[in-house]
Amino acid sequence: MNIYACSNSQNGRRFTTTFLAEYDPASRRLTYVNAGHNAPILRRQTGAIERLEVGGIPLGIQENIPYESETVTLQSGDWLVIFTDGVIEAENVHTEEYGEARLLTLLHANVALTPTMLLNTIMLDLDRFVGNAPQHDDVTLMLLRAN
Questions:
Q1: What pLDDT digit, counting tens, does each position of 62-106 carry?
Q2: 9 Cβ partners below 8 Å, 6+ apart?
Q3: Does domain 2-145 have CATH number 3.30.559.10?
């Protein structure tokens, strides 16, 4: 993927951050590579926070660079939150950013909700925060809860 991205990146001026993962439900193992993307949040059932940062630089910057992968095992009650920078960098009319702290607060306070309900809660809070301020980036958020 990186070689292809480099062939179309205008010498690294156009690049792509990405988070790629494969989950095996039988073993509960999530193997991932983070290529310069916002580090997803793994909130353990205990409340501990881990960040999924292992990988490398964004795709399209340097052709022959190695990428590392990492594997984590999800336990029942763990939450995985994958998001674009458009979520945490969304601004209100005062040019204040939504921020990761606010996202984490909502996650910690609502772990008993279903993923759909938590997603709706976060998106409503984000919409209220932003109000009528114009946005300049996509807002993408994916939530997974291990059973």
A1: 999 999 999 999 999 999 999 999 999 999 999 999 999 999 999
A2: 15, 60, 61
A3: no
Give the domain ranges of the chain: 2-145
DSSP state, residue 111:
T
CA 21 to chain centre: 11
Sequence-distant contacts of 47-55: CB under 8 A, at least 24 apart = 47/108, 49/104, 52/19, 52/21, 55/19
Two tokens, residue 94: 């005062």
Specify which residues 80 forms β-bridges with.
Answer: 42, 144
| End-to-end Cα separation, the chain, in angstroms | 32
Q: What is the pTM of this model?
A: 0.92
